[in-house]
Amino acid sequence: MRLEQWETFKRGPFYGAGFMCFTGLFVLLALIPTVLAVKPESATATVSSSPPFIMDMVYPNPGEPAPKTEFLNPELLKRWGFNGNVPREFVQCAITYDSLDKGIFPVGSEERKWVENNARQTDQIIAAMKAQGLPCYPFTDFIVLPRVMIEKYKTEICDPEGHIDIHRPKTQEIVRVMIDEIFRRFPDLGGITLRHGETYLHDTPYHAGGNPILHGPDSHVELLKLLREEICVKRNKVLFYRTWDFGNMHDKSEYYLSVTDQVEPHPKLFFSIKHQLGDFHRLSCFNPCLGIGKHRQIVEVCCQLDSYGKGAYPYYNGQGVLDGWEEYAGQAGMHGLRELAKNPLYAGTWTWSRGGGWSGPFITNEFWCELNTYVCARWAQNPERTEEDAFNEFAHKIAGIKDAQNLSRFRKIALLSASGTLRSENSLIQKLDVWWNRDQFFDACLMSGLQQVVKDGKMDAFLAEKATSTAMWQEIEKLGSELQVPDPKLAKFIRISCTYGRIKCEIIEQMCTVALLGLTGDAEHSYDKARIKAALATYDRLWEEWRALRTANPDDCATLYETGGFNCGLVNKGAKQNPGMGDIMAKYRALTK
User: Fold this and answer.
1) Which is it for strands 207-209 and 144-146: parallel, antiparallel or unpaired?
2) Which of 226, 525, 528, 561 has the most beta carbons within 10 angstroms of its beta carbon?
3) What are the residues whose beta carbons fall under 8 Å from the beta carbon of 417, sequence distance 6 or more?
4) What's the mean pLDDT in 215-232?
5) Does the global pTM surpass 0.85?
């Protein structure tokens, strides 16, 4: 839905008269050079009708059990057209290393029992997926080794700072043993998916490790050549090498090429890359590392985005991922997966149906995650298909929507959710810290962007943008209440989730109003106390409404946000939150007393 289409939509039968007061705001924002949909150029190249990999992953929050989800059901994955699965299993923590040193996990020890139990759980996952014809490519962090082993061989495998060094001969010997034992213990594995950079050890009490890339591109090349030989050449298994990092292999094309050009291609070697530059955030361009070099690539797509509600409210990314986000208008290069699919290096799509963050909101219904996952997966089976066609199929087969009027309502909810979220949690007026609104937290790092808004004299335009978003979310809420689906429980969830999203959006608008007025007062040494007090009163009322929504609907409403800031240490008991927007509200609330 383009911005001019939103103007037309306001005058249509679905738009209530109560929203007409926002007309001036839309006129103001009409000056913003952006549209809500980017249509791809006509395809001239032949597009593969069935890329080899259409995979899914459920990624539990670090330190937490897997969520209750249908995406762990192999039958559903098969039915939706997936041909592979990426279980979040540290298979290197399910082997004994007996072939290297039988003293690492002695027979009868508690440590060995833990390893063997971990292996049995992995067996069950592999067997269940295999029964549906779905090979497993477990997701692992690298490099992770037994603590006892690291201590025993520390002088041979670690640098002076204690980091495991992949360039050392003993380290390479251990990695070769690791790979050998993994595929001997789990012969039905299709391969391995490997991440470097971040190493989460919350679920590995007897293992430790860290990033093996200690010497830049040279470390990547050393590791890749070893893994290619052991996994792809010797065992004919698949290696998905994730390029995940910041400022290096994942988001700098010259760095990516400096590594991959030194590695000989292999039919079983693939590079796995997120579709957006950096993490899964709006206002970041399509990843320039995609479609270049000489190795085939799969594309990672998150369908439960931790910065956009995690499925607590509608946030549709299918159109943006496939055809390009509205903010890509006028940008050079590729905009979406549809264009990438024309490139012979494209080897498929990997959805993250659940997971990707650290904490809440915790959802009770994964409908919005299902929508994102379904559209991306079904499109991947036929890249010549339109996004809207895949969307309509979901509406018909999964949501049970069969009539034109309700299909139109559902489509408008989805498209407006992407546009409204962009203007609420992000901004086309001023670049904001993308981490301010992640998981269930409202982090005070938002203030750096708001300070620049005040400095540049953009406060009125910025708040007008937030009011526009509120109008969009009010329309989403209206459409959600009117939408008719056969399942009463689903209808209730959709209605409540749309209200949830509207309340969050309005809270952000009032939060920004208070903060901007406060920052202006700080600069001018004079505060508009009446306006700050009014915004705080609305802010407080919205929080009461939000809590009441959750209290009245515990089986349908997701858990709520918190006014504190994110801290990855929150998964450990006793960790404190970082400063949050609640602290900012308290600061300026004191001025009104």
Assistant:
1) antiparallel
2) 561
3) 313, 314, 315, 316, 476, 501
4) 97
5) yes
